[in-house]
Amino acid sequence: MPSVEKLASLPAIPATALRIVNLCDQPGVGLAELGEAIALDPVLSARMLRLANSAAFKRSVEITSVDRALMQLGLQTVKLTALGFVISEAVTSNLDIDNALLQRLQHEGLVEAVAAREVAHRSVRNTSSEAFLAGLFDGLGRQLCLFLEPEGYGALLSDSNWPSPEAERNCLGTDNVGLMIAALEYWGVPSFYADVLRFSIGEDTHTMEPPVAHVGAVLRVARLAGKLLVGTAAETTDADLEALAAIGLDESAIDEVAEGLSAQIADMAEVLEMSIKTPPDYSALLEQARNQVLATSLELAQASALQASQIDELSIEREQLRMEAHTDRLTGLPNRASFEGFLDSAINDRITGRVKTGALGIAMIDVDKFKSLNDTHGHQAGDRVLEVIGERLLDITRQGEMIARYGGEEFVFVAPVVTDADGLMQAAERIRRNVADLEVDVAGLILRVTVSVGAIGSSKITAPEASRALVQAADRLLYQAKHHGRNQSRTEWLSPHTNEPAAPPPVEHADAPYPSEKRA
Q1: Measuring CA to CA, which residue among 435, 402, 434, 433 is closest to residue 417?
Q2: pLDDT tens, position by position, 312-359
Q3: 178-208 burial, b for 16+ CB within 10 Å, e for fewer?
Q4: What Cα–Cα distance (Å) separates residue 374 from each residue in 235, 369, 388?
Q5: Are 17 and 89 in contact (CB under 8 A)?
Q6: Phi/psi at 118 (nearest 5 deg)?
Q7: Which residues pair with 454 in a beta bridge?
Q8: In 3D, which of 241, 218, 242, 50 has the Cα closest to residue 121?
Q9: For the chain, what percent of residues have pLDDT higher than 90?
Q10: With bands split at pLDDT 50, 70 and 90, how would you rate the model's confidence at 95?
Q11: What pLDDT was estimated at residue 322?
């Protein structure tokens, strides 16, 4: 942790920027209030306008007013981009260093930020705005190091594009990521981004919330792609592979991301008014970096055939671990962690406006009297019942929907778009009826089982916290179905035009004695 004296010597954030930082930390802030603060800074206003007309956001008609630009970008993108711009400007405007060196650091930081946005876009949860800002902050760390120790750190940069953390600590008493974390906390930036940086370097990896862990893993992968784009060989570590697996990508994604970013980097450099005197030849830099990696790989292979064999074995184990981390072993369905990631992504699509129609639907599904089945026929029979139910639920799940094992005898279903209350009820009944029709053969004994279903549909989604509320609501409806006799579905429909939920009547069915059985 940098000393108080070092933190106090960091560049100060202007009053307008501080107001934007504070507004961005308020969950309920709207575009109108944020737009008023941005309008006070003509440079920031112009950048937001250029961003709205850039390749990443531009539509067929050119946008000529800041108000329309903010509406085009959306609240989340405006908040995060404005926050990144004002802090980046506060840092770089205070750097009194060699211009060529500053251009190099700015360019490398921009490469990482754009790479982070693209990695996030390809991942299982699209958090591209958050990832871009995290990458921008990560790139600013080395500029702050140079600000504090221009001569000593400048000498390190002359020896290496990316000085090692150990070399940085010897020079400054901290590394660039640690300094940036301390700076963000000192400036009062929302704690999410300091936590993301911590996670990306392996700190507190077991205690961070899922959104932090996801963006942190994205940032770690983006660093590798960024190094490739500036011609630096980046050896992929076990921790890097774990980060790739966590966001649903494989090692080839690093090259794919790096290859497609030239236009985006030039576009964003123009938005930020960043001067890159000679645009790099990214294809040549990529080839150079790959050759370095290839040479290193050949040396390792020649040095030890046994080591190569061990690496192959570890790769297989890592792939198995990756699959196990996202898949339920018994049923082969996605597990609870996969469900939570899918739900977070569906909620984010609605918050950002990518999905505007219908409602998001969730159904909790519980096997009726499952304990009685296990006690009567044994756990092997119970496992077989869960396997067959999982197969049937997967068969009836439509494109774009998800079915997962939530835990124990519970399954969970997600429909990103449900048109109306009747559609939600039909989906719940489709699940209930298909399970009721099953005959499960357990060593010649035919078992029939039923499930109870609680389903909620809502278009009132404005914050990420909606995931917990939806799960709790579906669970409450499931409990009602169980309490009123089992083998039935209960649904609720939350309409944005009413204060009360509009719920179709519950669908109830007589619960036959359980388990129903016969000999094959």
Answers
A1: 402
A2: 666 666 666 666 677 888 998 999 989 999 999 999 999 988 888 899
A3: bbbbbbbeebebbebbbbbbbbbbeeebeeb
A4: 50, 9, 15
A5: yes
A6: -70, -40
A7: 364, 490
A8: 218
A9: 28
A10: low
A11: 61
